[in-house]
Amino acid sequence: MKDVELSIDQYSINVAKGLIMDTVRNANSGHTGGPLSSLDFTYVLFKEVLKFDPENPNWEDRDRFVMSVGHESALLYTMLCYVGWLDVNDLKQFRQLGSKTPGHPEKDITPGVEATTGPLGQGIGNAVGMAIAESILREKFGSDIMNHYTYCLHGDGDIQEPVAQGAVAIAGHFGLGKLIMYYDANDAQISGKVSRSDSTDYAMMYKSHGWHVQEIDGHNHDEIRSAIRIAQMEIEKPSIIIGKTIMAKGCANVEGDHNTHGAPLSHEEIAETKEKLGLDKNKFFDLPQDVVDDFQKSYKYAKQEVDAWNGRLAEKLKDIEFKNSWNNSNDLKLPKDIKWPNFESGQNIATRKVWGSVIEELVDKGVLLAGGSADLEPSNVTAGFAKKVGDFTKDNHSGMNFPYGVREFPMGAINNGIAQHGGLFIFGATFFVFADYERPAIRLRALQNLPVVSEFTHDSIFVGEDGPTHQPIEHLMSYRAIPNLLVIRPADANEAVFASKIAFESKRPSLVLLSRQGLPVLDRSLFSDSANIQKGGYIISDCPNADILIFATGSEVWVALDVKKQLPDFNIKVVNLGCWELFEEQDEKYKQDVLSCTDAALLVSLEAGITSGWQKYTGRNGLNIGIDTFGESAPGNDVADHFGLTPDKVKKTIMNKLEEIK
Fold it and tell me: May I ask the CATH architecture of the domain 2-297?
């Protein structure tokens, strides 16, 4: 019987190789060699190990599988055909417009794809985040309800990315015992052998970070099965299985050739390879029913396991406290009894201080909020939150604060993974200037519409004495350029509360940009209500027939209001445009009302950042006041005066412009 099983397994793998070759060749684009080297492990994992509901790809307690080597997507799609969530027609549409089989795996497009991957290294961070989420929720809801593994397939290129190594370090430090990774070590990259660019001993690297390490023949199924079982038994450390493999394994003439990495095989090579594998060279996209039947023979047991889980959940849901917590986790809705902080006018409050008040109130009301700062807890005002919820450590997997250390990019990728898993509100925090360390993760977050909130403090030149290395200048505009990302820059403490509320309630990828320096809490009896920031842009100080319209955001809003007061002889309207993305989503009438002014009005933008981009609102002949160089090292107020961002200097600039256009 064992020989028969091995025979059908090998036949099924050979059929999969034929499908992979046909898929990439038909698209005339994609990667062939890597999928063939990773196939043995992936086949065994999907057929014999992964826990999932065949009828529901989104079952809460399924094992997660992350293909960090996103370019090997043809392999994943082939396995999903075996699972039954895709069919051969989907493979025929590989890399075509609107298909379920895009060039790299994309979450929410393809059933069974847990993470959008492609840029190497980030999938490893995503998997770490998923394992963290599983661990926290297991502590919260019990191992009878939440108890699954996270598996990740990565390659040589993945682990060379520093973001991957940072995530590996965190996973080992946190003792994520239900995280199992497989390293397809085929010693081939696009440009040649790995040894051309890397001589790292990755087994030693993983060991040094506290991982359990196994090295196996990645094409030997018995070794693969044994390694997975051993990894599952290791409960105190994450596990890495390093599989020594051969690029393009099984090919007739190009086995081991790095040139197969990123290209289709020739028609001749495919034909010869199919003959070598015992396949009909004249059949294309051939998936015999007996292969599918054998692959799915454990589905009856899988459905029984899901039914048993549903029974356990139904029993626990009889407890009203558990039910409320479970529903809140699944729906990610904030409770109605939150007492959002409120600040009296007349005070000077740094908006970053608001963040601590908000997140501490959320956890006091039982919100399942997790997050952490990249070694800047006092500056990001997250220390109080950390004290309330406790650090997540290898000895405390119920902690909800992540001491990330100086690892912005891994923080971003891990937070994405927590959001991909689901069940927790999640935030990360650092200085705004360091957002660029995290930017690739923020971009993929926006692409996947993941509800991760980034609190970025020290949002302008008012960082002051730390100088141009720490003063964000181009950052605001560059993040506004990322589609589907909310960039919110509140004007005072009360607006910062609403900005935080927007970020958590909207379930959208959001940046909340907060000041280091104190800002006046505006008297809302004189100016429009701070809740209007929920519309992205609003008239904070109106004037009929405005002949000067000033747009401002964040710490420059009070400056604009002061300038209006200094120019009583002009009709000045001040618009707070704290979130461009939300403003553009308003209806046309609202936007026209906010932007209305006389035909000859001078349109002015005022923001402590680059001016390029403001022309969208000020037009070709507007006045854009900002900073188009790097900053300077000096006290913040001195830097503001140097760049002409004080009320007196702004007033003078406007008057000079009016004289010029007379």
Answer: 3-Layer(aba) Sandwich (3.40)
Burial group, residue 23, by CB count within 10 angstroms (0-12, 13-18, 19+)? buried
Residues 6+ apart with CB under 8 A from 318: none
Check 72, 223, 408, 455 and give the catalytic one.
Answer: 408
Identical fold for domains 2-297 and 535-660, yes or no, is yes
Ranges of the chain with pLDDT below 50: 1-6
Name the fold adopted by 535-660: Rossmann fold (3.40.50)
Supply the pTM of this predicted model.
Answer: 0.97
- Give the model confidence (pLDDT) of 357-398 as tens digits: 999 999 999 999 999 999 999 999 999 999 999 999 999 999
Task: Say if CB 515 and CB 531 are below 8 A apart.
Answer: no
Task: List all residues 6 or more positions away from 293 whose beta carbon is below 8 Å from its beta carbon.
Answer: none
Domain boundaries, the chain: 2-297, 302-331, 348-520, 535-660
Name the residue among 119, 42, 31 with its Cα closest to residue 83: 42
What is the distance between the alpha carbons of residues 274 and 283, in angstroms, rounded to a whole number? Answer: 9
pLDDT of residue 4: 42
Told to judge if 408 belongs to the known catalytic residues of this protein, a careful annotator would answer: yes
pLDDT in tens, 135-173: 999 999 999 999 999 999 999 999 999 999 999 999 999
Residue 390 CB partners (closer than 8 Å, separation 6+): 396, 398, 399, 400, 401
Q: What is the CATH number of domain 348-520?
A: 3.40.50.970
- Exposure string of 126-158, with b = 16+ CB inside 10 Å and e = fewer, is bbbbbbbbbbbbbbbbeeebbebbbbbbbbbbb
